[in-house]
Structures are given as C-alpha cells and as structure tokens.
Design a protein that fits this description.
Arc Repressor Mutant, subunit A, about 0% strand
C-alpha cells in the first residue's frame, strides 16, 4: 500500500529546508500540488508568522549568491521577478550600489586583468560587464581606471 502524498505544509517545509524561497516562488511551486479546498495563502501566512518563510532572508540569500557574478540591474530584476518590491527593494538597491564598482572590478580582473588601449578590446570588456548587469558608470570606472588601484 502506497503512502499518501505529502501535505502542502510538508512540501513547503521540505522546499524551505533546501534554500530560501520568496513567497511568490513558494506559492507557485505549491500551487501544482494544491487540491480543492487547500488555502495556499493561509499556509504562506502561517510559514511567515513562524519565521520559516522570510522575504528578507530570501533577498539576502539571492544577493549573496549573485553579487559575485552580476551587477545591480540584473540582481534587482531577479528580485522583482520573485515579488520583492517597495521599500525593501529600494533598501536593497542602495546596499548594492555601495559595492557595485568593487564587484565590477573584481569580475573584470578575473576575466581580463589588464587595461587595454585597443578600442575593440575595450568594447568587448564593456559589453561583457553590461551583459552582467552593471551600470555604465561602474563599467567606465573599472575599464578606464582599473590601473589606479593596482
């Protein structure tokens, strides 16, 4: 005899035990398993009330995972896609802005390492950092003034 499928609460706790999830993301994942009469919003409220689901922890976790590889615009877009908005998003944006140039410089250093005078190579470096989501202000500081900190 097969065991009954896990409850929505059990599924939610299993998902949260592997990594932090946003409320929106967890709601989407649980919706696949919801049956008639299941109240996903009530479950998410219960998880938040017990501090098992935290938008703040999720945001910090996502930033920690992405900051070493991506720029502010890419990280902020991902946060927005996970339902982070309002004052929380503005606070996170300002925190990211404080370190954007240093993060761009570290990525540039690993990938290229030397300042170039060749315009084609410089465009390549700028495109690379733009694709990673860094602002033009940060990119120009890194590509033109990378030798200042060495």
């Amino acid at each position: 005899m097969a065991a009954p499928p896990p409850s929505l609460k059990a599924r939610a706790l299993r998902l949260l035990s592997t990594r932090e999830h946003s409320r929106l993301e967890l709601g989407r994942k649980l919706a696949r398993y919801a049956e008639e009469g299941d109240d996903i919003d009530a479950l998410l409220d219960f998880l938040e009330k017990n501090n098992w689901l935290s938008q703040e922890r999720f945001s910090e976790s996502l930033i920690h995972r992405r900051a070493g590889r991506y720029g502010n615009s890419r990280i902020v877009a991902e946060l927005q896609s996970h339902g982070v908005a309002g004052d929380a998003l503005q606070d996170l944006k300002s925190q990211l802005a404080d370190t954007e140039v240093e993060r761009a410089r570290a990525i540039w250093q690993r990938k290229f390492g030397t300042v170039t005078t060749d315009p084609q190579e410089r465009h390549k470096q700028v495109r690379f950092l733009l694709q990673r989501g860094f602002s033009q202000r940060a990119i120009l500081k890194v590509v033109k003034g990378a030798d200042l900190d060495e």
